[in-house]
Amino acid sequence: MSQPLVGMDLTDLREALGPDQPGYRARQIYQALYHGQAADLAQISTLPVRLRQELAERHALGLPTVDRLFESTDGTRRYLLRLADGRTVETVLMPEGERDTICISSQVGCPVDCKFCMTALMGLERSLSAGEIVGQVLLVTQENQLRQEGGRLNIVMMGQGEPLLNLPNVVKATRILLDPAGFALSPRRITVSTAGIIPQIAELGREPVRPKLAISLNASTEEQRQQLMPITRKYHLKDLLAACQAYPLRPWEKLTFEYVLLDRVNDTDSDARRVVKLLANLNAKVNLIALNPGPGIPYATPLPERVASFQNIVRRGLPCFVRKPRGLDIYAACGQLKSNSQPAIAPALPPRPVHP
Ligand code: SAH
Question: Residue 57 catalytic?
Fold first, then answer.
């Protein structure tokens, strides 16, 4: 069987249909895939039955399947999704009041090796195709009948993997998600997060259609950052900040810096003051995340007072927010995504205390 349909753009679809089909057929399929959200080729009722059959013989639709679903007491849902080659990857849905956020993966595992992150323990298995990136969004949207009117839906590429080490597929997926004729998401509703792969930051900035950019800072000095995120031995803080300075923000856009707070490692008041200095010249905001712990992670979560003190100092220089952990009880929070079909990794349903 040749290429799956999900992940194809209009050009790919025209090519897949061949010269005998009228041009509007590709548009009909494109719309059905991403806008109408077909869960099955047979559902694309705008196409003649014969063409649907021919397509089904040659192409899979290509959506992932749900291998396991974990549900948190806070409403977060962690999907372990199975891909066509049998590998699994995670996607997390976080419903919250007026909005839903889907956190998607860009790779199976991750090559970056951050010392506080559970995904790092997997190493890199492979990058995802554009279709596997878009497929996560389509599947979770369908499964939960999510609506995106009024900007309800947000997508963050903060799951497994380093998106900027899979940039062509991330960009292709983003184009489909943002295309008004495709998934039609607003560009303000999609964010990509990077450990700071400098050449690809510049490359992303040259893309006319792109997500918002978040950068995982996670340290206040070069030395500390190199210890916590070994990949930054290659991509230095000074050069990262220069790339951020040169990054072409859109008029409504700010850079986001993420900072994982590790107890007594990078969470002191002096760290906070250094963060303010580092970011002083940027149009930026800071999101603080108190460490989400996990097996194999040699750090502890700071006390709430420490987090508050850090926030108060950073706030004097730039907007600073504390991200609430979501889905901690099911290993769905930031840095906890480690594909594992073994039930031991997290209970499918958290055990409930039994009251007499
Ligand atoms: N590779 C990308 C995207 C995945 S990580 C990146 O590095 O940005 C997404 C975010 O989760 C990053 O900001 C990362 O620093 C944070 N993170 C990783 N492990 C964490 C943990 N154990 N607790 C809290 N946040 C964590």
Answer: no
**pLDDT value at position 351?**
37
Residue 122 main-chain phi, psi, to 5 deg: -80, -25
CA dist 192 and 239 (Å) reads 20
How far is the centre of ligand 1, averaged over its atoms, from the C-alpha of 10 (Å)?
Answer: 34
C-alpha span between 169 and 133 (Å, rounded): 8
Give the pLDDT score at 84.
Answer: 95
The answer to whether 31 touches 181, Cβ cutoff 8 Å, is: yes
Question: Each residue of 82-106: pLDDT tens digit?
Answer: 999 999 999 999 999 889 999 999 9
Q: Which residue, judged by its Cα, is nearest atom 17 of ligand 1?
A: 335
Q: What is the mean pLDDT of residues 280-299?
A: 94
Cβ 334 under 6 angstroms from ligand 1 = yes
71 carries an active-site annotation: no
Q: Are strands 99-103 and 88-96 parallel, antiparallel or unpaired?
A: antiparallel
Q: Whose CA is nearest to atom 19 of ligand 1?
A: 335
Residue with tokens 């989400």: 292
> Whole-prediction pTM value?
0.93
- Options 103, 244, 320, 334, the catalytic residue: 334
